């Protein structure tokens, strides 16, 4: 219908690689409109539940060297054994530091608590300029809890398709402590955890503590990025600013060698000076018609969110046309979730 707002169009679930964009998602066509709707809805929710408009920056507890993160996973388990449902069964022992699972409740109404122990670097948060990744943030925990619950319950409308996830190479930008890699890597084919060089040792420490260590590991080729002891997990430094400033001929050396099926960016939008480099990195790593980009952000400064979205929309070029979807119902709380997909242009479209 002429004059119809594309945001109001009804569609079925869309598949973008391993990501299932729900029918309730809306296309982002205008950054100003998206930001207005996000913050209007946020204010309405806060008024309805009486919550405060500000809960701090969003980290969980920056005063501890180690946090025990507990995720409550609820859902029916009719006829399921404890080895089913997607979440790895790990029995508590003094020799194991892998994620612990507690099962409680009646036979047909089971809730599970998954616990991981995550090291933080509280000193770096205060002493290293621009360091925000050395502590755990609410967005990562809340996102992981929703995804794990969907995987456990085998939700037909889950955000990730289990089959697609099992074959996917996930690259996470700005991974911080590596919490999401610890929790999600058992469900994927390969998980590459990246952040600045200073945070790589902390990520490796958390991966080694929480994931099972194989008896042997293959030798690493010279000049390859250092791997963690876990077969399907790689940790490497990826500096957005370095990539942004690098000539095209050098950029392949600064990023994972295998293309990403899913590019995960969780709560990395906070400082406007980093936005151009972040967007360059997203655009460079996104392979047209292959890579689904998932961005999760806690809603803080409106102007920063607007600048990010406008910059992302403006990235469409001869290399591909970006479509961005706002997934408003995935997470409760002060969050926005977007799925980006770059569509390759035909030769005739490039010449126009």
From TrEMBL:
<dbReference type="GO" id="GO:0008757">
    <property type="term" value="F:S-adenosylmethionine-dependent methyltransferase activity"/>
</dbReference>
<dbReference type="GO" id="GO:0005829">
    <property type="term" value="C:cytosol"/>
</dbReference>
<dbReference type="Pfam" id="PF10294">
    <property type="entry name" value="Methyltransf_16"/>
</dbReference>
<dbReference type="InterPro" id="IPR029063">
    <property type="entry name" value="SAM-dependent_MTases_sf"/>
</dbReference>
<protein>
    <recommendedName>
        <fullName>Methyltransferase-domain-containing protein</fullName>
    </recommendedName>
</protein>
<dbReference type="GO" id="GO:0032991">
    <property type="term" value="C:protein-containing complex"/>
</dbReference>
<dbReference type="InterPro" id="IPR019410">
    <property type="entry name" value="Methyltransf_16"/>
</dbReference>
